[in-house]
Specification:
homotetramer; 19% strand; globular
């Protein structure tokens, strides 16, 4: 294996570049580079993952696509004023870096844009980003708003058919999948941090495999679902019989606003609800709700009520309340994923990056939902690679 | 290894035989034997642990020591009336078996009893229990009220010194340790389900090692602490910085009443508080409180407030509320431990049974506090033993 | 005013006579009569309301209409087994009284029954109930399942038109309104403990006024909404600005099952949601959800998240969790209402019984939603009447 | 009655002038004057209280005593950085006004200072404050740290004896009482916002009555106790039997630190615990805990578990979690109290200001603990006075 240098320049291309998560990534990377904050929440800065020759935090250049006219700095200002994120000192000290990200932002795929032309344009944007910034590699991460679920039809089943349909602009593909195709064609790793379809379409997976592109998703595991992935195994491992698990989420950011539309909500609930059933089996009644409560802004608050039966039919309950700031929880995971995906591609990895399962609500090709095992898998990956060098 | 039969008769000797946990074990074992309930909460009835040739549930005879005049049936009636445990149908159907347990109950060690005589008497009780019931082996489990912490002095450091002091009735040893000595001398496995000293005294450990007796403890992990042992690792593994973890427990049973005494409470708080510090390090402020709220009876309610810092210094919180019935949570663990400890001894095992760590708040000789790893260790033990046969 | 005697015999006629609330009323009244329980939760047994010459608890005869084939004793058995209500001792001691209630139960109005015939039949049932049991008066209380909201059309606006339409079987009226008409025609007080239409239709109110019949409703205020009616005034009175109030209810009884239908849920949410807006004004975002979680049975669990702004724009939160048993909360209110409505009618009262507002989520003709003021109004009523005698 | 003008200049003298509450009062009054914030949380800005001719917010001059060397601006900066209070814009815009408050701050009474000299010095400070700022009247409010409970001895029973003992420096009086004496001697209203003794000593009350000075206290009712004062009456008024009420408070500010000392905590718990017993009677077991959790800073978090029995012995529970910022909750109450106390004195009022009970956990000479009635009393006072004019 070719030795790789930590000081190589890499790119992090964000679909949804002016959104809350992207803005927090932008200001956060700048603050880390300028030593204004500690790398709290980054597994890539802790052993054993940090022993991998990942690109240095200071060598990551951020750019992305965005369909909104809003600039990153506006998102930052709003998160500060409405949700209390970031100190004014950090905002001031990172302002120039944030402008640089804004300059690296390109117009995203519009709703009725011709699909083939859109893919071609996105590919040009990605290439140009890499060239202008002299980047060795670029990781593409989707942090845009959740799309409605994609209904898979025969045209989505093989790359031949899909490619033909694309050329004729007849393929019903959401924007997330067009971005995925563009990244894959450019052999850039593509990571889907949302529940949208992205690369998780049979034809696109076939294409990624053929080209040896790295892909992974779906839906970043930041809060309530993270708790489910440690608590559900605990109930199972203690032999307690969970009768019902009712989760209620309230939040007020644009993510919440988008999820107010029934179609987008359907996508989200699928990934949120799956873990409990998958770990505890069909005997557990599950319910997951998401509601838009404007005043909460970026503070996602979740109440989960877990009703379970123990010995001698005794019925007991556990409840938890999670009060997390979505952007602050998601941003370090996105940075981790960019570094790990780029490293995987840089060292010849291809296909689905199942070792990154711990970052996702619905990890591709992974049936293990227990968080502790997913973390162990990532650690093992790091230890194996470190030893191999 | 000699093949052992599942239909061997074994004994489960409970210190505190008329207490809530013991009474729930007695009625529960009878109900299981009579197929009135399902084995919810018993790991020994689930793969892979169930593949071990453990003694059948129907072959376990229960007896024990008790200092209170109260009978098991009275405790059962009180748990039913005040805490809503057990159906009347189960109480009626198991009444004869419960009487049998009462007949197997002997007077426990009194407060100022001569230590050497007490040990001798307990040994006779244990031997007689085994003989009368034609038991192949007896597991002794301490489920009595929590004792104040034992101050270890030089006399506790070597068996020679301790044995001499015992004979002269000069050894300051709590009852739990006298029972432990009696069990060890009889080569019966001794398991400490409470935070009392029990066998965890250097001199007694030395004696157990010399005689090849199996020991384990301390303090059954049933509720709030079980949650700590899955949640603390989650915060660590996500790189989130836990600033403070404040746990408040309220309960109303006799356990709670005893814990109202500052000395007993000190023992309990030590085992409850240790896990968080052990997993998250000294940077986390911890606070654990236990209060006696009479109306709650056996329903232990816990509120834990976990304050943590994420990316960019964002402060967030998780809170949980646990409403568990202590006896119903503890009883299946006690049954599991009896079967597993007896099996270990039956197959030539000796010393500290570290593979049983998942059952304890403060497992002897085990520094791993992550519940998922402790469960994996037990499963590995079961798989290794099953394959070896 | 004619003196009235406490030992007069009165009737309590329940629409939904085999449902959870009705069954709890039946067993509860019997247990009170037999001095097996204390009158916890009955305002009519506490000063100053108890100083009114209400009919004695032992003189209340229960009967009702029911469309289900289920008997009261089956409901009682199910509530006992699944929700832990009632001791077996009370169930046994009240069995004969419960049978008597069953014998007083008549077939309810079926879905497509002819409206005029149904009203006539119900009137006969009510008269026969009073006659056979030698009752001085009967109070009719609707505790049946929630119906979808009624769309008021011109035919519902005047009694003339409605009566004509009824005869022609052309009046779209839900069963609750047909029962209300029957009661009113019989000059029996009608109380609506559900959010269904009942007597709250302009034409029926007109008729009640013409005949001097007493009516009141709607929707018993038992749990989450009761809390709203003390907490919302507190926030207002402290000048705190409530930004959002998100309430989530989960429950598993038949009430919950019926509310799973969107139409019935709409009725319920209207009465549940109104209080907060009414007290705090339109500036507060409100959200109320009800979900059917089967394992909870009769245990309604509610989580309310109240987000508010204080001085200097500081945003704070209060959350509450309510774990109440719906039937046990509702039954004493129903008994209170029967006694108070009968007393009101017995002493010449007519029209809307606004002094009973404290019992309802959406009290008819009352705009005061603050619980403390509603209670004060009831107390004032009792004091005025007591002094007047 | 002499007409009084809203534009009169009045003084607000704070004992504990650099503490969290005082600093929030200082910045808040400035921000209100400059129209940077809305008067959220001020009853004196809402009808009917606002109809009284209270001194205008812009005419209140702030000063005070402080024993710490810390300046108000440092407290403001710390509250901003650690607890997220105030926007930077407000901090900047109010900086000059805050400096003015600092210039009005005088050295507080030291631990072993001669009592008579201390009183004399404080009186001079108060007079000089009024003179220099041309104030018509000054209200003195104690917002200093909680003191240990005062043991009342014969010397505290009459003013003659106490005055003699004071001259001889033999009277065991805490600082709060010396400030109270100074204010009373100057005929300035004295309000005790803490659980310390202040003016609530028989001899001092005698002196206040003799001089016609206005006094009130004790302990501002801001959060958990405010909830108790609406929820306890609700349980009582519904006839529900509260078995236990267990309240747990965690907080991290200096108030919390002081309360970590058992003596100071004893003062606090007395006022916090009293309401529930007073409303619900001795049958309810109460428990109140306060713990210092440093990371929470000014964010007081409380969990209350209320266990109650309803009809047919059914046991149910309500729990609430309160997450409030102590300073932001207290500051508007302090401003209200200053205006209302000054107005009362200005219009010839004397003695204990019982109409201000709604502001206190343990209101002097008031046995009514129901918040809604206390608020009604204040409103009635305002309406009576308004009409009288």
């Amino acid at each position: 294996m070719t030795p790789i240098r930590r000081d190589r320049r890499i790119g992090l291309w964000l679909i949804g570049a002016s959104g809350n998560v992207a803005a927090t990534v932008a200001i956060g990377l700048s603050a880390l580079r300028r030593k204004l904050i500690r790398p709290v929440g980054l597994l890539t800065e802790e052993l054993p993952v940090s022993s991998l020759p990942l690109a240095a935090l200071s060598r990551i250049v951020v750019g992305g696509h965005e369909i909104d006219r809003r600039q990153v700095r506006q998102t930052i200002a709003e998160l500060h004023e409405r949700s209390g994120l970031f100190s004014e000192r950090v905002i001031r000290a990172t302002a120039a870096d944030v402008r640089a990200v804004e300059r690296n932002t390109r117009r995203g795929i519009a709703l009725r844009e011709n699909a083939a032309l859109a893919v071609a344009r996105v590919r040009r944007d990605l290439r140009e980003f890499a060239r202008r910034n002299r980047l060795e590699r670029v990781a593409v991460i989707n942090v845009a708003s959740t799309e409605p679920p994609l209904r898979i039809t025969p045209v989505h089943q093989s790359w031949d058919r899909l490619a033909t349909a694309l050329k004729a602009n007849r393929a019903a593909l959401p924007a997330s999948s067009l971005y995925a195709i563009a990244a894959i064609e450019e052999r850039m790793p593509y990571v889907n941090f949302t529940p949208s379809a992205g690369a998780d379409v049979p034809a696109i997976r076939e294409r990624a495999a053929a080209l040896g592109a790295c892909i992974m998703g779906a839906d970043g595991k930041t809060g309530e679902t993270l708790l489910k992935s440690v608590l559900a195994p605990m109930f199972r491992d203690r032999g307690l019989r969970v009768l019902s698990w009712a989760g209620h989420n309230i939040l007020g950011n644009r993510d919440g606003q988008v999820l107010n539309s029934p179609a987008a909500k359907a996508s989200k609930l699928r990934t949120k609800d799956g873990i409990v059933k998958s770990v505890l089996g069909p005997g557990t009644q599950t319910h997951t709700a998401i509601e838009f409560i404007e005043s909460l802004d970026d503070w996602k608050t979740a109440w989960d009520h877990i009703h379970f039966e123990g010995f001698l039919g005794t019925r007991m309950a556990m409840q938890f309340i999670w009060q997390g700031c979505d952007s602050a929880l998601a941003a370090p995971l996105v940075i981790d994923l960019a570094r790990l995906a780029e490293y995987h591609a840089a060292t010849g990895g291809t296909g689905v990056m199942t070792h990154l399962a711990c970052y996702f609500k619905a990890p591709m090709d992974v049936r293990e939902h227990q968080f502790s095992r997913q973390i162990d898998a990532l650690r093992r990956y790091a230890l194996d690679r470190t030893r191999a060098r």
